[in-house]
Amino acid sequence: MNENIIFDKEKFKEVLHYLISRCGYRNNVGKTVIFKLLYFSDFDFYELYETSLTGEKYIRKPQGPVPTHFDEAKDELVKEGKIHEESEKVIDYKKYKYSSLKPSNPTLLNKNELTIINDVLNKISQMRSKQVSDYSHGDMPWKVAEDNGELDYEFVFLS
């Protein structure tokens, strides 16, 4: 599955930093919303251009698609002083918030890539985590994947 798609960590980090710089300050934007922004950026781009934006692999979880390299990329961005992560305990789970410490300068992203990312931001970055999770459950790659299985980019064409 997705054998011809190769993960580009630097580009993934750049997309992540860009997303956080654009909407991380909003109260509704935590880990779940960031996960879905990344997912839809990658899969919407694939649907239009038949190539992956970052090459990230996404796993089917109950709350929707989850990027496999998120923690690694996020930790590197924190170490590089580009973003900040904070968490607080809310009843029985941790709520994560992200903020950009430096302006995002997406030099690895071309005009088409930025257009797709900005379209995704405009479409779903105002949603709360439950809304965006429910929205992602309507996407064909998530629907057809097995629990904890990898989502196949090719299934965007079945929507």
Description:
This protein is of the alpha+beta class. Helix content is 45%, strand content 15%. It has helices spanning 9-23, 31-49, 70-79, 111-124, 129-136, 140-144, and strands at 58-61, 64-67, 83-90, 93-100. The chain has a two-stranded antiparallel ribbon with strand order 1-2. It has a two-stranded antiparallel ribbon with strand order 3-4. Helix 2 packs parallel to helix 5 (129-136). 35% of the residues are buried.
Task: Summarize the SSE layout with pairings.
Elements: H1 9-23, H2 31-49, E1 58-61, E2 64-67, H3 70-79, E3 83-90, E4 93-100, H4 111-124, H5 129-136, H6 140-144
Antiparallel strand pairs: 1-2, 3-4
Got a strand count? 4
Query: What is the subunit organization of this protein?
Result: single chain
Beta-strand proportion: 15-25%
Radius of gyration: 15 Å
Quote the distance from N terminus to C terminus. 18 Å
SSE succession: HHEEHEEHHH
User: Biggest β-sheet, characterized?
Assistant: 2 strands, antiparallel
